[in-house]
Design a protein that fits this description.
Blueprint lengths: L4 H15 L2 E8 L2 E3 L7 E2 L1 E5 L2 E6 L3 H4 E8 L4 E4 L1 E6 L1 H7 L3 E2 L6 H11 L7 E6 L13 H6 L5 E5 L4 E4 L1 H6 L11 E6 L2 E8 L2 H5 L7 H17 L2 E9 L1 H12 L6 E7 L2 H10 L2 E2 L3 E9 L29 H13 L3 E6 L2 H14 L8 E5 L15 E5 L1 H7 L3 H9 L6 H8 L3 E2 L10 H10 L19 H7 L2 H6 L17 E4 L16 E6 L2 E5 L5
Parallel strand pairs: 1-6, 2-7, 8-15, 9-10, 10-11, 15-16, 16-18, 18-19, 19-20, 20-21, 21-22
Antiparallel strand pairs: 1-4, 2-3, 4-5, 7-23, 11-12, 12-14, 13-14, 17-18, 23-24, 24-25
Helix pairs in contact: 3-8, 11-12, 13-16
Length: 545
């Protein structure tokens, strides 16, 4: 049978239009997509194949590909998967297994919680989240009542910043801590020469060393609990600021089993065992795990007066704070880390510590081309030292710290030093990028609280009306970049994530409002509707809630 030329041409046209369309896994269209690419392009549709963004553009994408699944968003907003540039992912999970003390308004309230939540079967009573700055009497608590209530069970209550414990006498006895115990990297708080049970920074390790080891099941559950919370909040990558070798191995194991889908930038905790292993082995990089940095503690926290200041605390004239790592140790560590081609990410709260880090980093990085070493928190900075930040030395900050600390920070540092505190815009101008995180569980996980704090400089009650030191507010575009592409840049991962572009990992979220356009005071109410990792739906909001 002979076909007419007209029929043959029709067949050829049909196959050219429809038969040769490439197959993709998912197309999302009719959306408001903030790509966060170099031009901050806004598009309407994305196509995903094999876990990557295959195409990004207009709704005509629907005509270009055959998709296994299509999703009409009816104008809803898409953002790149959010990155928390500084948090404690594993710690968040562990906190789900202890008594929650966040938001307690007095020590009496803590006692009531311990009575109701603990029982005779506890080998140790753990709690986390107390903050004496939230109490009417803003003084450190005393262990006396804990000693009476729990004479035979160790009690360990962690302060919200993770830089202090309140423990009872049983825990002190187990750790062999007495009034004569010396510790150069922290403080045993005393009253009239007697231990109060409050341990700041260094001595906390003595308690940790005598507590029962967690089971593997408890450790795994902690990671999975943290993942569930983070996906619900739209996080697809977390920068965990300090993990042991064993925890990193566990993360890798669960990721390889496809149980843990969260991407983790793991900062190696500074211990002899950890450093000997990782610095000799070299960086580890998989699509889900990045082990290429070391977390160092320069000093403690401002709230517990452990941050190291150039001159004494305004509300404690005899106290300068204490370094956790000495200048000589910092310099030796910096040289060792640089020689191993790792990043050094150092906790620095006080202006004295920040200056020490700027000097140490600058010396070691003189001949390094693109090190991207980080100063975590970069919290209280002498204005004369701001120029020390540059393209080699980058700030990683937590905007909600500014809006939670503002009630008492000036009491700690005085009216002059507060001008160099939480200075995010100034830091951005110096380094050209800034990474934004929460430090959760110190602060809430919610990244839209971060967005609000960074842009408005207000707390969730809308205080202060004109913002806290509003000259250091970030724009909405800068803030979104700090939570996506700039955070990825701090991790050396900007070519694989942090924006919605062809060839990058298909990590994205769908939210219930356009945070770039709505009234700024509405942004902290934002909810995540869906979270995708590599194009896979990992969180779906329950609309019945």
């Amino acid at each position: 049978m002979k076909y007419s030329l007209k029929i043959i041409l029709s067949i050829l046209i049909f196959f050219s239009l429809f038969g040769c369309k490439k197959n993709v896994d998912l197309i999302v269209y009719n959306a408001n997509v903030y790509t966060v690419d170099n031009d901050f392009t806004i598009v309407n549709a994305i196509a995903i194949k094999d876990g990557l963004f295959f195409d990004v553009g207009g709704n005509d994408i629907l005509k270009k590909y055959n998709a296994q699944e299509t999703y009409d968003l009816n104008g809803s907003t898409i953002l790149p998967g959010l990155i928390d540039a500084h948090c404690h992912f594993y710690g968040l999970g562990l906190n789900q297994q202890v008594i929650d003390l966040v938001g307690t308004k007095s020590f009496d309230e803590i006692i009531l919680k311990l009575k109701s939540k603990s029982n005779d079967n506890n080998s140790v009573i753990k709690g986390s989240g107390w903050d004496q700055n939230d109490w009417d009497i803003k003084e450190f608590p005393n262990k006396k009542e804990l000693d009476m209530l729990f004479p035979d069970t160790p009690v360990v209550l962690e302060r919200i910043d993770g830089h202090a414990y309140l423990v009872n006498q049983k825990a002190l006895d187990m750790a062999k801590i007495t009034t004569k115990t010396q510790n150069s990297s922290g403080t045993l708080v005393k009253n009239n020469g007697e231990l109060t049970g409050v341990l700041i920074d260094g001595p906390m390790e003595l308690i940790d060393n005598v507590l029962p080891e967690l089971s593997n099941l408890e450790k795994e559950q902690a990671l999975l609990d943290a993942q569930e919370i983070c996906f619900k909040n739209g996080l697809t990558t977390v920068d965990d600021a300090g993990l042991s070798k064993e925890t990193i191995f566990l993360i890798d194991e669960l990721q390889k089993k496809n149980i843990l889908k969260m991407r983790v930038y793991a900062m190696v905790s500074n211990s002899k065992e950890n450093l000997e292993y990782f610095l000799n082995k070299g960086p580890i990089k998989t699509p889900r795990l990045n082990v290429s940095s070391v977390k160092i503690y320069g000093d403690g926290a401002l709230g517990s007066r452990g941050a190291t200041l150039k001159s004494p605390y305004h509300d404690d004239k005899e106290n300068f704070g204490k370094l956790i790592t000495t200048p000589k140790q910092l310099e030796d560590l910096a040289s060792k880390i640089a020689n191993a081609n790792f990043q050094m990410n150092t906790h620095a709260i006080g202006d004295s510590t920040v200056k020490l880090l700027l000097n140490t980093y600058s010396k070691v990085l003189k001949n390094k081309k693109d090190p991207r070493w980080r100063i975590e928190h970069s919290q209280i900075i002498d204005l004369k030292d701001m120029d020390g930040f540059n393209e080699k030395i980058l700030p990683s900050v937590q905007p909600t710290h500014a809006t939670s600390d503002m009630y008492w920070a000036e009491d700690r540092v005085g009216s002059s030093r507060i001008n160099g505190a939480y200075a995010y815009k100034t830091l951005l101008n110096k380094s050209k990028v800034i990474g934004l995180g929460t430090d959760f569980p110190v602060e809430r996980v919610n990244p839209f609280h971060t967005f609000y704090a960074a842009t408005s400089r207000k707390d969730l009650n809308g205080y202060p009306e004109k913002g806290f030191q509003s000259q250091n507010a970030l724009s909405r575009e800068e803030t979104l970049k700090g939570m996506t592409i700039w955070a990825a840049y701090l991790n050396f991962e900007e070519n694989e994530k942090g924006s919605i572009e062809k060839g990058k990992l298909a990590d994205f979220i769908i939210i219930d409002r356009d945070i770039m356009k709505i009234d700024i005071d509405e942004t902290p109410k934002t909810e995540v509707l869906k979270t995708y990792v590599s194009g896979e739906l990992v969180y779906l909001k329950d609309i019945t809630q």
